[in-house]
Amino acid sequence: MSLQTKLDAFKADFEAGKPPYNVPASVIEVMHRATAELVASGAAENTLKAGDQAPSFILNDPEGNPVSSADLLSKGPLVISFYRGVWCPYCNMELQALEAALPSFREVGASLIAISPQTAVNSRKSVRQNHLDFPILSDPHNDVAAAFGLRFVLPDYLVDLYTNLKNDLPSFNGDDSWTLPMPGRFVIGQDGVILYAEVNPDYTRRPEPEDMLPALRKATQTSAN
Predict the structure, then answer these.
(1) Tens-place pLDDT, residues 27-49
(2) How far apart are the C-alpha atoms of 31 and 196, rounded to whole Å?
(3) Residue 20: cis peptide before it, omega within 30 degrees of 0
(4) CB within 10 Å: which end of the chain, N or C, has fewer?
(5) 3-state secondary structure of 88
(6) Contact present, 186 and 48 (Cβ < 8 Å)
(7) Which strands make up the sheet holding 184-188, listed edge to edge?
(8) How close are the terminal C-alpha atoms of the chain, in Å?
(9) 187 and 196 in contact (C-beta within 8 Å)?
């Protein structure tokens, strides 16, 4: 079953108010409004695209060890997934799909990392709950996400909803800015040039992991020549 098929099935149950979430229709309407406004804003058009130079960065892994994009790129191409956090079920399903695809990434010499604004404690929880064999890096204040054009500020009415639902982003992220990244997936070649970019302001839509394989093969061929 494809990742998007799984996401669509979860979304249908969630929006139907089924257990364990039992979400009322009024909550769904607010979420739909926020997504529609973010889509209409055109924010996704301002993100980095294939052919752009990727910003370099150093972020900490869940154990507090610094991880450098330059170091990773010295070994091969790099796959990056920006996601919202351990509290987001769509993100967790994406991480699981990326974990399943990890052997195919490694076959072509690529590294995989995920980046979220959450604290190290929550990144450790993500790794543990999703049985991940790749690192999740903490991006305080979504600064690296902003460098890729992904950061956005939640509207006040969505902040109110999240607060009422006890979805306390300031606590999850150790940051009271109420910002999130639009989910984004990037393949970066060893020269730092982005070979694949997929960003969707609708967080319920995610690309399939295998969609990146052509770009990864191209990156491998380029570095071999």
Answers:
(1) 999 999 999 999 999 999 999 99
(2) 29
(3) yes
(4) C
(5) coil
(6) yes
(7) 66-68, 58-60, 136-138, 111-116, 78-82, 184-188, 194-199
(8) 36
(9) yes
